[in-house]
């Protein structure tokens, strides 16, 4: 599947299909050569609730954005809002990020469009149906693919690109659900546990090459994805979460729990002995 670029304002429109774009990567400026220049930010899964809120903040400070999502209508709305808020440039592609074979072309096109890359934010993910996944692997497999396999494919390409250039930040949305398997969401949680372990290892590999790799572990956040969950009214406000994440990404924090109290909560949960933990309804 070849991702298709969405329409741009006249000053930014490119009529050349992605499949015909030159794939050799180019960079319009050297890292750090223009400290006050807008950040060049690639957002993968740009219509997720947390990503949308981060995009609003990046746009308001005038950053340059390349947004990727599978739903064209939702992506168009996020794009229009980002332009209204003041993004210096917004380019987009409608793509199903589960299609890993299309990743190299998509990412090369995105970075060429941005003229380089300062931040890649991976926010793709699905909760899935735990009950169905327990009964049928056919229901579990898409959860594992979207939450683990697809991000690993994207990160492998992005890690090699940024490591070769000794610059950039890769920020990855995982979850506190990956800290310990629980009966209520262990399929989703295991996919996030795998992603967290991969990102940990990736950071260990390429931090020495000048690339920041950030693991983001939110607790429950009020978004469209969680609105039907029990207790969702008490979940963290997405705007507050996004503000925390944008600051952490700028700072280059290795691991971010948001809200911060989840660092303590999960530390306690990890310490519960298994003989007790297995009897709990969590």
Descriptive account of the structure:
There is one protein chain. With 282 residues, this protein is of the alpha/beta class. The protein has one domain: 3-Layer(aba) Sandwich (Rossmann fold). The chain contains nine helices and eight strands. It has helices at 49-60, 72-85, 103-114, 130-135, 137-165, 186-206, 238-251, 261-271, 274-277, and strands at 4-5, 40-44, 64-69, 89-94, 119-122, 169-173, 212-218, 255-258. It has an eight-stranded mixed β-sheet, sandwiched between helices. Helix 1 packs parallel to helix 2 and helix 5 (137-165) runs parallel beside helix 6 (186-206). The longest helix has 29 residues, at 137-165. The radius of gyration is 19 Å and the shape is globular. The chain starts with a strand and ends in a 5-residue tail after the last helix. Mean pLDDT is 89; it is low at 1-22.
* Average pLDDT over all residues: 89
Total domains, how many? 1
H/E element sequence: EEHEHEHEHHEHEHEHH
Q: What's the level 1 CATH class?
A: Alpha Beta
CATH topology: Rossmann fold
> What is the rounded Rg?
19 Å
Low-confidence stretches: 1-22
Number of helical elements: 9
Q: What fraction strand?
A: 5-15%
Overall number of strands: 8
């Amino acid at each position: 599947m070849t991702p298709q670029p969405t329409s741009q304002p006249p000053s930014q429109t490119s009529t050349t299909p992605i499949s015909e774009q030159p794939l050799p990567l180019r960079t319009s400026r050297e890292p750090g050569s223009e400290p006050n220049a807008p950040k060049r930010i690639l957002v993968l899964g740009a219509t997720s609730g947390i990503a949308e809120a981060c995009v609003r903040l990046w746009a308001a400070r005038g950053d340059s954005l390349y947004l990727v999502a599978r739903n064209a209508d939702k992506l168009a709305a996020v794009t229009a809002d980002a332009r209204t808020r003041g993004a210096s440039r917004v380019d987009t592609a409608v793509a199903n990020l589960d299609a890993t074979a299309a990743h190299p072309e998509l990412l090369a096109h995105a970075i060429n469009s941005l003229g380089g890359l300062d931040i890649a934010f991976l926010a793709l993910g699905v909760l899935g149906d735990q009950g169905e996944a327990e009964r049928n692997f056919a229901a579990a497999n898409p959860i594992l693919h979207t939450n683990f396999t697809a991000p690993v494919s994207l990160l492998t390409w992005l890690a090699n690109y940024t490591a070769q250039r000794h610059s950039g930040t890769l920020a990855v949305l995982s979850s506190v659900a990956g800290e310990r398997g629980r009966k209520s969401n262990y399929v989703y949680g295991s996919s996030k546990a795998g992603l967290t372990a991969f990102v940990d290892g990736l950071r260990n590999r390429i931090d020495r090459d000048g690339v920041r790799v950030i693991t983001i572990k939110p607790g429950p956040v009020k978004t469209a994805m969680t609105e039907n969950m029990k207790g969702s009214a008490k979940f963290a406000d997405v705007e507050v979460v996004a503000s925390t994440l944008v600051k952490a990404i700028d700072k280059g924090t290795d691991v971010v729990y948001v809200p911060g109290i989840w660092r303590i909560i999960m530390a306690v949960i990890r310490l519960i002995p298994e003989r007790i933990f297995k009897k709990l309804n969590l």
